[in-house]
């Protein structure tokens, strides 16, 4: 992790270096190659894992893997049944929720790898910047939440029809009076924007803060070759373990929250006011 | 120098005030959950799911604040702006 000036990096330089994406393009068309690569890799891993379990599924005594996946599928299915009361759309929405949960969980779980492990390896391969947690990238989380928004619009149009949805947009929170229509429409638009932004920002904020705290803890261990190095290194091990254990809760919880909110928003698109 | 000290104060306030709010929220919700679980133990599993969902929602604002505060504290973005100011 030598900086350009040749000296060992200061704390600020270390953090800034770690918060830099591997980017190509400029302006609006900037691609964060590391986020794209790791999110696709985690998607492929999740699909392969579920597929390999589903292929060896047995109706006899299930193995441990099968039991775990069955538990997961059943959990998502129960939640979907409780929130989306339309058996036909559940054929799409329940697998969607399972995908979202598994994918986001795996992407979040990249946080549990040592912060310097993969950047160190890629630096040896000549790649200067690498951020391995795709959900700590605002582009990825907002893309996910905008995907959910598009699905909500699709189901609004499909269930209520264009006329029905337009009527709801103009009459929903305050009542169907012609002079209230602009306020109703304004409220509805604000609601859609706020839902989408908070949906993506929540996941991003949690993962970004978690990643940053892992980096700060890594800085403690990085000060090993100084006068106060030994206590700091011991503190690194204790704080790192504690935060990693707590983070297992956070990554699962955030994946679960994202899945539940996806179901709730799609469920709202099915309810007529 | 002034900028550094103000940003340090701001980071402390962001984390501290956020923590107060999130802790009070989680505390109220946890006590209500225990109360309702004591009254109707058969609803415990169902309520637990909802409690964790809400815990994730309440926590989020605080953790986003913490992330921003730590970002300010370690890689202060305002210092760069000062360097670019016309003298």
Automatic annotation (TrEMBL), chain B:
Key words, A-Z: ATP synthesis, Cell membrane, CF(0), Hydrogen ion transport, Hydrolase, Ion transport, Lipid-binding, Membrane, Transmembrane, Transmembrane helix, Transport
Site (Reversibly protonated during proton transport): 59
GO terms for cellular component: plasma membrane; proton-transporting ATP synthase complex; proton-transporting two-sector ATPase complex, proton-transporting domain
Localization (cell): Cell membrane
Lineage: superkingdom: Bacteria
Residue span(s) of domain V-ATPase proteolipid subunit C-like: 9-71
Main location: membrane
Membrane topology term: Multi-pass membrane protein
Regions that span the bilayer: 6-30, 51-73
SUPFAM superfamilies: F1F0 ATP synthase subunit C
GO MF terms held by the record: hydrolase activity; lipid binding; proton-transporting ATP synthase activity, rotational mechanism
The keyword GTP-binding is annotated on this UniProt entry: no
A Pfam family recorded for this sequence: ATP-synt_C
PROSITE patterns cross-referenced by the UniProt entry: ATPASE_C (PS00605)
Role according to the record: F(1)F(0) ATP synthase produces ATP from ADP in the presence of a proton or sodium gradient. F-type ATPases consist of two structural domains, F(1) containing the extramembraneous catalytic core and F(0) containing the membrane proton channel, linked together by a central stalk and a peripheral stalk. During catalysis, ATP synthesis in the catalytic domain of F(1) is coupled via a rotary mechanism of the central stalk subunits to proton translocation. Key component of the F(0) channel; it plays a direct role in translocation across the membrane. A homomeric c-ring of between 10-14 subunits forms the central stalk rotor element with the F(1) delta and epsilon subunits.
Family recorded in the similarity comment: Belongs to the ATPase C chain family.
Name the UniProt record assigns to this protein: ATP synthase subunit c
Organism: Rubrivivax albus
């Amino acid at each position: 992790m030598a900086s350009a000036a040749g000296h060992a990096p200061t704390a600020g330089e270390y953090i800034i270096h770690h918060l830099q994406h591997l980017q190509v393009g400029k302006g609006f068309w900037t691609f964060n190659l590391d986020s794209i690569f790791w999110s696709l890799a985690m998607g492929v891993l999740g699909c392969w894992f579920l597929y390999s379990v589903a292929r060896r599924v047995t109706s006899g005594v299930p193995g441990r893997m099968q039991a775990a996946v069955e538990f997961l599928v059943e959990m998502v299915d129960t939640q979907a049944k409780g929130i989306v009361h339309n058996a036909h759309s559940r054929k799409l929405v329940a697998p969607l929720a399972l995908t979202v949960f598994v994918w986001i969980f795996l992407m979040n779980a990249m946080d549990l790898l040592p912060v310097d492990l993969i950047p160190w390896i890629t630096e040896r391969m000549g790649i200067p910047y690498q951020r391995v947690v795709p959900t700590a990238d605002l582009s990825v989380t907002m893309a996910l939440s905008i995907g959910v928004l598009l699905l909500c619009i699709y189901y609004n149009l499909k269930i209520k029809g264009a006329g029905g949805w337009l009527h709801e947009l103009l009459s929903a929170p305050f009542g169907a009076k012609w002079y209230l229509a602009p306020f109703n429409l304004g409220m509805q638009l604000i609601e859609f924007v706020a839902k989408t932004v908070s949906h993506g920002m929540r996941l991003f904020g949690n993962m970004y803060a978690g990643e940053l705290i892992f980096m700060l803890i890594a800085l403690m261990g990085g000060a090993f070759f100084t006068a106060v190095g030994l206590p700091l290194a011991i503190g690194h091990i204790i704080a790192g373990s504690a935060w990693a254990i707590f983070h297992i809760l956070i990554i699962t919880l955030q994946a679960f929250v994202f899945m539940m909110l996806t179901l709730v928003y799609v469920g709202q698109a099915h309810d007529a006011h | 120098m002034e900028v550094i000290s103000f940003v340090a104060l701001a980071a402390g306030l962001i984390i501290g005030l956020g923590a107060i709010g999130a802790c009070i929220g989680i505390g109220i919700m946890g006590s209500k959950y225990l109360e309702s679980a004591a009254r109707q133990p058969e609803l415990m599993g169902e309520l637990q799911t909802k409690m964790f969902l809400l815990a994730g929602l309440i926590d989020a604002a605080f953790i986003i604040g913490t992330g921003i505060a730590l970002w300010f504290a370690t890689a202060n973005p305002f210092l760069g702006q000062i360097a670019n100011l016309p003298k």
